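User: Some background: our group keeps a shared notebook of sequences we're curious about, and every so often someone picks one and asks for a predicted structure to add to the entry. Today it's my turn. The entry only has the sequence so far, pasted here. Could you supply the structure so I can complete it?
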Amino acid sequence: MYQFLKKSTRAKPVPQQRLLQVNGREMPLTIRQNPRATRITLRIEPGGRALKMTVPRGLRHWEVDEFLERHQGWLMTRLARYGSEMTLRHDGEIAIRGVPHRIVHTGLLRGITETAVVDGRSALRVSGMEEHVGRRIAAFLKKEARRDLEKLVAMHAARVGRPVRSLTMKDTRSRWGSCSWDGNLSFSWRIVMAPPQVIDYLAAHEVAHLREMNHSAAFWALCGELCPAMDEAKAWLKRHGSQLHAIDFD
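Assistant: Of course. Here's the predicted structure to add to the notebook entry:
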């Protein structure tokens, strides 16, 4: 009897995954226990599609529920910044190098995806089946991102006198780019939706790591030398970066 009572008073394990309702929106929530954590932290994942919570080990489930209840208002305010999920369809809009382009689905089963001017407006003409519009736009953006970044990386690498071993395009949500010790650079192709100075900053940032594999004062000085618009570009990414991650191309 004593053993039963002792077992029943133990704290329930905190679930690792759950769905949270926020203002009528269902959000995936990942809860991670960290023995070094002294308080609960909650953050919105890039793109505003999921939540991540870190809690001290042994925290009771009702304490998690209470915390989430207290922060409903905060979540509603923050998630409102992402707006409603963008749907890529005919007459919708997508930014290319910071310029809004009207999406024009041609209805043709075959053809290339290309920019054009339609009725005096910048447009992106997309062929193929309607349900594949998002994927065709993503493929176009990847190609354009690679073209821009290959040119910018080559220019900045020549200035720092460091070789680039490879350049790859990814769809990462945690970072915009990365640089390995042996000169492999990777970038999120979504950056091509940002203004040109932001794309240039990202290229300069990763190339600067070829010389300074850190975020020291020397690194930031080199980055600013390569990209004079560094501060403005960083501020733009901080304000608008999550909106680029929020676009669903599937």
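Suggested note for the entry: The CA atoms of residues 40 and 67 lie 8 Å apart. The chain is about 35% helix and 25% strand.
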